[in-house]
């Protein structure tokens, strides 16, 4: 069933954030948990922890700390839309978040998207105002497992290591 969904999660960032990673819209599991990439089979947190050689964060506080320690901001392209469950292909009537406004509060100089729909929405609704090209990364969703083995996903996401200050 298609329903109207409004984004309820605050962006994660601080003034030292250098990379903004954007999804499309929080999934039902993420909205329920009130945190990004909360589906237990989503590979996002495992990828980041392995790329930065850190233990897997087990709660939202640890996830937030992992992001901020590595100068990563996290948000979604959309503020609201019509969507069926977590199916990005079903998105209708998208309304973008104020990405440019967020960037003005940070040191962000790179943008990456998780999934082709997030990339397409960013290009259409945000790119011109933001002034930064985005890097399209594959979705970490469990629905994308048939297209990307974990090792391939990790290789694709390794690009973020060159986009943030390390050390």
Could you provide a short overview of the structure?
This protein is α/β, with parallel strands linked by helices and 167 residues long. The protein is built from seven helices and seven strands. The chain is 31% helix and 25% strand.
How many strand units? 7
Quickly name the level 1 CATH class: Alpha Beta
- CATH fold-level topology: Uracil-DNA Glycosylase, subunit E
Number of helices: 7
Distance between the termini: 47 Å
Radius of gyration: 15 Å
- Provide the helix percentage: 25-40%
Low-confidence stretches: none
Helix and strand layout, with pairings?
Elements: E1 2-6, E2 19-23, H1 28-33, H2 44-51, H3 60-69, E3 72-76, E4 78-84, E5 87-96, H4 99-103, E6 110-114, H5 116-125, H6 127-130, E7 134-137, H7 150-157
Parallel strand pairs: 2-3, 2-6, 6-7
Antiparallel strand pairs: 1-4, 4-5
């Amino acid at each position: 069933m298609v329903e109207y969904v409004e984004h309820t999660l605050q962006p994660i960032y601080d003034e030292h954030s250098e990379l903004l990673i954007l999804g499309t819209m929080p999934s039902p599991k993420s909205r329920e948990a009130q945190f990004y990439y909360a589906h237990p089979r989503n590979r996002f947190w495992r990828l980041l922890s392995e790329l930065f050689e850190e233990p897997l964060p087990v709660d939202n506080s640890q996830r937030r700390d992992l992001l901020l320690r590595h100068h990563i901001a996290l948000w979604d392209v959309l503020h609201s839309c019509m969507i069926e469950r977590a199916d990005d292909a079903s998105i209708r009537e998208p309304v973008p978040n104020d990405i440019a406004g967020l960037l003005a509060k940070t040191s962000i100089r790179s943008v990456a998207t998780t999934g082709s729909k997030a990339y397409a929405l960013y290009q259409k609704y945000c790119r011109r105002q933001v002034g930064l090209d985005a890097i399209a990364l594959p979705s970490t969703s469990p629905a994308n497992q048939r297209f990307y083995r974990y090792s391939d996903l990790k290789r694709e996401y390794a690009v973020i290591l060159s986009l943030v200050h390390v050390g």
